[in-house]
Amino acid sequence: MLQKTTQTANAAVEIYIKISEIVYPTFLGTTIIAHSILLLFIIFFSPSHLKFLRILLLKTSIFDVLATVINFYIQPRILADRKENIPVYCYGLCRQMNTQLCFSLYMAWQTLSLAVGISMSYTLFFKYHKINGKGPLVGWRMFISMFLFYIPCFISTICSVIIVIRNTLPPMSRKVGDEDDDEVEITDIRYSEIGRMTLGEIPNKVNFAMMSYGIYFSPILAFWFRWKSNKNLKTTISGASPYLQYHAKSVMTGLALQVFMHFIFYIPLFSLYLYSLYTGTEILLQQFFLAMSPNLAATFDPLINLYYVVPYRRRIKSWFERSQPQRTSPLRVASITPSAIG
């Protein structure tokens, strides 16, 4: 009976491996294509008044692409059912490389994913600060606000360095599906064990807390900033031109949609991770695709930007309509800039 159960479990693992072999390359390809198109628009089709927005889009795009490429290179499987001593298996090209380097990339990917989520929250805070009449965030105000927002990333980076330095692997690694408590050598060349997350140690606990903050609290904070901004948006731009009102609302909608996309992609699988962690239940969906979930939105982010950034959308629309995009006077551009992007 036990042997039959083990065979069934191994068959399920094989199915997930086959799915991963299709999903990861597809995900990488679509992400690179989408961000390449966005990059072309940022460089060649951004009006001068979108200077700050260009920087913001470029930064987020770089974070997204880096996180996606690293994720593809590693293709980690996180066995949360092992509770405090969690093995991390590598199914990507990184399995052929140095184990410590591969584990370092895995920890760097975590920090990058956290930075992407915090960047979106900070963008909405930037908008909230402007709309509520507190003035633009420039100089030391911007530096202090960014520092405070990115404190979880700084802490996570420090913890990651400590975790990587302390990372040790047993001389013999347990093979997936093996019911024996003794460690046995992994003979399947399709993956290798690159590290173990020892949640009983303080650096791992602190890093886990920072990731949980980014996943659960950061989106809530972002939506709060959006709610407060929308509450005063109508009053703030009531005397502005119709174009300004349309542009400002469009940017706010796009930002909120991006936060929501990350929210729905990551929280369900991370919640399964927590459930598996505390109950010891093996959930293959969580093991194979938890690492992909925070970067799934990376494919859709460029499409959202291309639609909700009005100059980009008008440029694309003009190509389909075979007409020139609507031009905006310098005076109108100057009036749009603070509220639309700041």
From TrEMBL:
Instruction: Give the location in the cell.
Output: Membrane
Q: How does it sit in the membrane?
A: Multi-pass membrane protein
Q: Which key words are in the record? A: Membrane, Transmembrane, Transmembrane helix
Entry keyword annotation includes Transmembrane helix = yes
Transmembrane parts of this sequence: 22-44, 56-74, 106-126, 147-165, 206-225, 255-276
GO annotation, cellular component aspect = membrane
Q: State the family it belongs to.
A: Belongs to the nematode receptor-like protein srd family.
Return the protein name: G-protein coupled receptors family 1 profile domain-containing protein
Q: Species name for this entry?
A: Caenorhabditis latens
